[in-house]
Amino acid sequence: MSTDILFVGMEHWVAMKATSTIAKIKIDNSYMGGYLALPREAPRGGIVVLQEIFGVTPAMRAIADDFATEGYAALVPDIYWRMQRDLDLGNGEDPAQRQAAVDFSERFDERVGTTDICASLDWLANYLKQSSRPGLVGFCLGGRLAVRAASLTEVACTVSMYGVRLDSLGEEIRKARSPMQFHFGENDNHNPMVTINRIREIVTERAAPNDEFYTYPDAEHAFYNRFRTDRFNEKAHRLARSRVVSFLRQHIG
To answer: Any bridge partners for residue 34, and if so which?
Structure first.
């Protein structure tokens, strides 16, 4: 299926085209679904995009589409599939949907979910049949899960965008072998600066030369999500996007 994609250029929105399809990732005797965005030409590499707490929403699909315009095959796995397939709880602006999303995230088994993410990395690597392993880019809950998965399996690089409770994942951060990039808004209500600074200390202790750590003044949690009209920060989004794409270029191709 062909879909029109809009993404932020330096001055205005620019229309482009990419291809998307539905993935089915075999797990035991069942499967995990996923949204797979593909560039118009041969992919330069692959990334697994890990969702916020609201499911595989239009916002997450749009982010995958945007990465496809940069030449990457971008897979958004349906990590809640064991509880409910194809969950879409909107953008977090509706209080009832937000509470439902919190409930799902609290019931989500991160240990099992992380093994599912590792399966999605293997699936994408097999799909692309390239020498480089896929990378990971996660948002909120997905930013936490990206770190957990990177500590268990080989990935080309790991991007955690305002990952939650990362200060409790010191062992996983130190154990991950891939280059890691972290992004936080300085007004993040889920990650106060004392928490962000603790995470920065853990990352510094890794002493990995290719790691990167960024904070954004005046930016809140979910600042990257264009669909979050209450949180989106154009300036921070543009800068973070350029840094993520540069990081992917450096470590994937």
So the answer is: 23, 77
